[in-house]
Amino acid sequence: MPLFPIQTATNHVRVPGILMLIMGLANVGLAVALAIRSGLGYIGIAIAGAIVLTAKNTLFTPFYAARNLKLPWYTFYPSLIKGAVGFAVVGLGTYLMSLSWALTSWSKLALAGISVSGIYALGAYFLGLTTSERLLLNNEIRQRMKRLSR
């Protein structure tokens, strides 16, 4: 999300606008192919939108933002990769959980969500954050706890 304002701030919106038009047409074509020809119906439309938007936001947007800021083309990809790995781990974890744990009530669903969120938060804290980011987060938590205890 923070990469989109770069295009506006640097007044480079023509190329993303044209690309959005092209990607919109590709989305329609892919949606028709997936919904009608493959028989997926409405789900095919959602899948097409997810594919096209993900492609644009992972391939074009970080590259174009780096280019506008005169940075190396790969500048924003390391953080994007961390997020993608986290997404894949959570997706795989929830899928495996659904195979072994029947989520037959709201309380079980809530417990599963809290479990996955907690595990992800720990992993993001220890594996996803740098030492300076962890120190910054710890200081922020301490300051907020002090304010709450007053």
Can you summarize this structure?
With 150 residues, the protein is mainly alpha-helical.
Describe this entry's structure for a reader:
It is a single chain. The protein is an all-alpha fold and 150 residues long. It folds into two domains: 1-74; 76-150, no CATH class. 82% of the residues lie in helices and 0% in strands. It is built from six helices and no strands. The chain has helices at 4-9, 14-37, 42-68, 77-100, 106-128, 131-149. Helix 2 runs antiparallel to helix 3 and helix 4 runs antiparallel to helix 5. It is flat, with a radius of gyration of 20 Å. The mean pLDDT is 90.
Q: How would the blueprint of this fold be written?
A:
Elements: H1 4-9, H2 14-37, H3 42-68, H4 77-100, H5 106-128, H6 131-149
Keywords:
2 domains, mainly alpha, 150 residues, single chain
Q: Roughly how many Å is the radius of gyration?
A: 20 Å
Q: Based on the structure, what is the oligomeric state of the protein chains?
A: single chain
Tell me the structural class: mainly alpha
- The unreliable regions are none
* Domain unit count: 2
pLDDT average, as an integer? 90
